[in-house]
Amino acid sequence: MTLSAVPASLRLPPWRALLLRPAGLTGTIIVAIVTVAALAAPLIATHDPIAVDLSRKLLPPGATHWLGTDQTGRDIFSRIVWGARPSLAVGLLAVLIGAAGGIMFGLTAAFARGWWEQVAMRIMDGLASIPLLIWAIAITGIVGIGPVRIGMWTFPNESKLILLIGLLYMPPLARVTYGSALLEVRADYVQARRLQGAGASAIMLGDVLPNCLSPVIVQATLLIAVGIVVEASLSFIGLGVEPPFPSWGGMLADARRYIFSGEWWTYIFPGLAISLTVIGFNLLGDGLRDILDPRKVSGSGRMVV
Amino acid sequence: MFVILGRVLSSLGVLVAVSIVLFTLVHAIPVSPARVVLGGDASEEDIAEFERDNGLDRPVIVQYLSWAGGVMKGDLGRSLIDNTVIAVTISQTLPVTLELVLWSFCLALVIAVPLGVLSAYHEDRWIDHLARVVATLGVSIPTFWLGLMLIAWGAVGLGWFPAGGYVPWSAGAKPHLLSMTLPSVSLGLYYVAIISRMTRSSVGDVLMADHVRVSRAMGLSRGRILIYVLRNALSPVVTVAAMSFGYMFGWALIVEQVFTIPGMSRALLNAIFRRDYLVIVNVVLVITAMFLVANLIADLLYRWLDPRTAR
Amino acid sequence: MALLEVENLGIGFPTGGRIVEVVRGVSFKIEAGESVGLVGESGSGKSQTALAIMRLLREPGRITRGAVRFDGTDLTQADEATMRRLRGGAVSIVFQDALSGLNPVFPVGVQLMDVIAAHRDVTREQARERAVAMLNLVGIRNAEERLGHFPHQFSGGMRQRVLIAMAVACEPKLLIADEPTTALDVTVQAQIVALLRDLRERLGLSLLFITHNLDLMGEICSRAVVLYGGLMMEDSPVETLFTAPSHPYSRALLDCVPRLEDEPGMLRPIEGAAFTLATAEAGCPFAPRCVLADARCGREHPPETGQHPHRIACWWSGS
Ligand SMILES: Nc1ncnc2c1ncn2[C@@H]1O[C@H](COP(=O)(O)OP(=O)(O)OP(=O)(O)O)[C@@H](O)[C@H]1O
Ligand SMILES: [Mg+2]
After folding, report:
1. How do residues B19-45 score in pLDDT, each as one tens digit?
2. Residue A283: which of B136, B142, B240 has the nearest Cβ?
3. How far apart are CA C190 and CA B279, in angstroms?
4. Of the given ranges (A114-118, C79-83, C206-210), which has the lowest mean pLDDT?
5. Mean pLDDT score of chain A, rounded to an integer?
6. Chain B window 120-139: which residues touch A at a Cβ cutoff of 8 Å?
7. C96 touches ligand 1 (CB under 6 Å)
8. Which residue of A48, A84, A162, B165 lies most exposed, with the fewest beta carbons within 10 A?
9. Is B41 helix (H, G, I), strand (E, B) or coil?
10. Considering CB atoms only, which of C83, C84, C95 is closest to B221?
11. Domain ranges (residues) in chain A
């Protein structure tokens, strides 16, 4: 219809298009760095993140301690590198749970129609009316801070967070799945596959799901960012990762009092680590949306927490 | 009318469901509250006696009903630990939290709406790019770190603001407002981001609409057209704003910790670390109720603003 | 002096680093009280021409050359304040999107009164009276009560009537109607055209009537400007056009006017691929589909020949 030529970036494979935009590129680089840090923490960290050495406490950044040391002489750089683990674990695992549940509810609701559609979407509405942060605080409060033991396994304190956040992530992911699955279900090719005698689950998982994944991926990326912020905030007030294990929020809790005495490296670097990581996931999510779902204004349509 | 009634009832329903879930959770924990209060070395008899005194030996459903009956009469029960009246604790702390939330909310609206409108009007100009940067930072910088940085800058560095604490109104308006400034900014920035982006996209959509072209073609003034546009773009913005108001109570707890403000968070965290179950349940319920009311208002405003569903 | 003189008007959109002109030097005139049709296939540049006259082109579109003289002032040079005074005042427009043309969240009365108040120094009461009079004029009954209704409470045809009432509320000298009936069904179309004809006589306004539909144009216009590929092909009195079209494109258009068995008033497609600007070259845009075309037609655009009121741009028009 219009004369305007298709922007060059739209004709490229999606990952190329993503990397061609400054936001997408920055996001991808940050996320890659954080992921590598989390996976290869033992290799990257220069010191033992929990080794206390009071003779080396509160050293400013220097040659041996790149980002300085904290009040018990632990190496801040190493703690930040290790701290990427709980952050990403909470962010990713919660989104995985949320996506699994959300896709299941959204997809089956779009397919089944009728009563199940009503019930599934009502359940999602109910979950959506629960404020995430307060409940994360409440659940840890009621269940108690500390590791969870189930049989022979022990799960760290933050696994409660992962479960709860995952649960509360289901509604937004179910809604985007449901929305795009509804359009797909009405499409001709689904009717054709039905006539060919393909089973409902084969159509659902094999044909419909792949076609409505893009908005789910966009939303999920943005939700990882939310999870990381929630984990850090709860660790900051002492309800998340338990000391002495390193977490960015926990490091900031320790560093509070040094705001007044001037040891700036104790509270600047962990805060930068969180903020940059979260910016990375947000930029990646917005970049993905620009490519996969270009009608939306970037930054709108986020899940509010 | 029926729609409104339905929404009110369903909000109440959610609240009841939530309270049941909380109560069940408390009692699903294998450790008895009595054990927590009396300590690990208390004898079985002491525990049984404590449970009997506090009615903890009754079936959960009975305990729930008696508590719920109390709530109807405004009696939220007493703390198991120090026997304080929970309703009093809440009535002392809730106003502080509410004030913090209100300031942040107003601040967020005052900045976000003009920012969103300007960036929609000047798509792809510097103000739009600036708004996008602000929004990305706003959703990314965690509230509590922003708070710490503001203390480092505004209190320790410049010395303009107190580093924390809550100065009551009675101590003078200026000190009071100064003590609320940094907390409100740190709580508000995230919502500046959320609301400005929503405004931007909503106003942007309306600007593309046929009826705006008609208004321009009929020679209406810019101001009049702005009013036309805003009134159209309002519904989604109002919804997000009202919901934000509800969510702010959660983050307010964190901000109160950063700035040592004696709001609900102190009561809640004390209760959590002392495992004072009944206080936890009640505080969480109060905040959830705030959240539900905000959602309800969002929903009603949305209906009321749209002439197709109004009245 | 004519009421409106469009002279060598060009409209361009920046595309991939250069400006593509979608209207490439179109000229025509409208005398006071005259009613002129602007016809042509979809994409020929009719709406852009209308929007350019009102200076309402959507970003990033802009006027690249030429002049639009209304009552002697060149609108392409006028400042925004002047344009705002003219729009809805002396020059007004009705768009084709009747369903979405009214603001959904304001009562139509407010919208009408706002237009009146923007151009007239009136009290609220006077604006209200005028609004009622206008709704009566366009044939909406219970006007008093209807003022308080929202657009969704009106049918499509009624909404278009309201939009027409808005457009003529301040007694424009020129009304542009851009396919005012396309969004409506056939019986309503006829009513709207009848209304426009009636208004034209009563208010003595000039009309630029943009349409695909030659039948409708014949009913309301005395002269027609035929556009193709952003260029004027022929400008001719309607009778001459219908009985003896000079330009091969006009002839093709008329051949496409339906026989009895077709849906009334609709164009049937002309043979050959429709013109696209992307492949536009220097020659006559119609050359690739024209039965008469030779090498020169494809190479050089023909100059305009003839005098107002009958001008033609075709190498073959003289012979
Ligand atoms: N924003 C734009 N960018 C580039 N080209 C545009 C833009 N808007 C319109 N055009 C082009 O301008 C040309 C003329 O469009 P116009 O809307 O004037 O056609 P029209 O004659 O009114 O057609 P219709 O009968 O379909 O309304 C078309 O080729 C169209 O593709
Ligand atoms: Mg058009």
Report:
1. 898 888 887 776 777 777 777 777 888
2. B136
3. 73
4. A114-118
5. 87
6. 132, 135-137, 139
7. no
8. B165
9. coil
10. C84
11. 67-280
**Residue B177: which residues within 8 A CB-CB, separation 6 or more?**
none
Asked if the model's pLDDT at residue A283 lies above 80, the reply is: yes
Secondary structure in 3-state letters for C212-236: CCHHHHHHHCCEEEEEECCEEEEEE
Clarify whether residues B111 and B156 are in a common domain: yes
Q: Which amino acid is at A134?
A: I
Query: According to the model, what pLDDT value does residue B72 have?
Result: 85
User: B115 touching A, CB under 8 A?
Assistant: no
Q: Is A142 in the pocket of ligand 1 (CB under 6 A)?
A: no
Query: C4-90+177-259+304-312: CATH homologous superfamily?
Result: P-loop containing nucleotide triphosphate hydrolases (3.40.50.300)
> What is this model's ipTM?
0.89
Domain range for B299: 94-310
Q: What percent of chain C has pLDDT over 90?
A: 58
Q: What is the pLDDT of residues B183-211, one digit of tens each?
A: 999 999 999 999 999 999 999 999 999 99
The encoded tokens of residue B207 equal 């600007």
State both tokens at C185.
């069904």
Question: Which residue's alpha carbon is nearest to atom 18 within ligand 1?
Answer: C45
Spell out which residues of chain A touch residue B193, defining contact as CB-CB under 8 Å: 299
- Determine whether the shortest distance from the Cβ of C45 to ligand 1 is under 6 A: yes
pLDDT digits (tens, 9 = 90+) for C56-94: 999 889 999 999 999 999 999 999 999 999 999 999 999
Whether the predicted pLDDT of B52 surpasses 90: no
Instruction: Name the average pLDDT for chain B.
Output: 89
Q: Is the CB of C70 within 6 Å of ligand 1? A: no
Q: Which pLDDT belongs to residue B48? A: 83
> Using a CB-CB distance cutoff of 8 angstroms, which residues of chain B are in contact with residue A128?
none
The one-letter code for the residue type at B22 is L
**Domain-by-domain residue ranges, chain C?**
4-90+177-259+304-312, 99-171
Contact between B229 and B207 under an 8 Å Cβ cutoff? The reply is: yes
- State the best of A1, A2, A4 to mutate against chain C, taking most chain C CBs within 10 Å: A4
Does residue B85 fall inside a structural domain? no
Cβ of B210 under 8 Å from any chain C Cβ?
Answer: yes
Mutation test of ligand 1: which of C20, C46, C233 has the most ligand atoms closer than 8 Å to its C-beta?
Answer: C46
Nearest CA to ligand 1 atom 8: A2
Say if ligand 1 is within 6 A of residue C118 CB: no
> Tell me, what's the pLDDT at A2?
37
Q: Are residues B304 and B187 in the same domain?
A: yes
Question: How far does the CA of residue C61 sit from the closest CA of chain A (Å)?
Answer: 11
- In this predicted structure, the answer to whether residue C213 has a pLDDT above a threshold of 90 is no
For residue A54, pLDDT over 70 is answered with: yes
- Give the mean model confidence (pLDDT) for residues C221-248: 91
Q: Which CATH class is domain A67-280?
A: mainly alpha
Could you tell me which chains touch chain C, where touching means 3 or more CB pairs under 8 A? A, B
pLDDT band at A292 (very low <50, low <70, confident <90, very high): confident
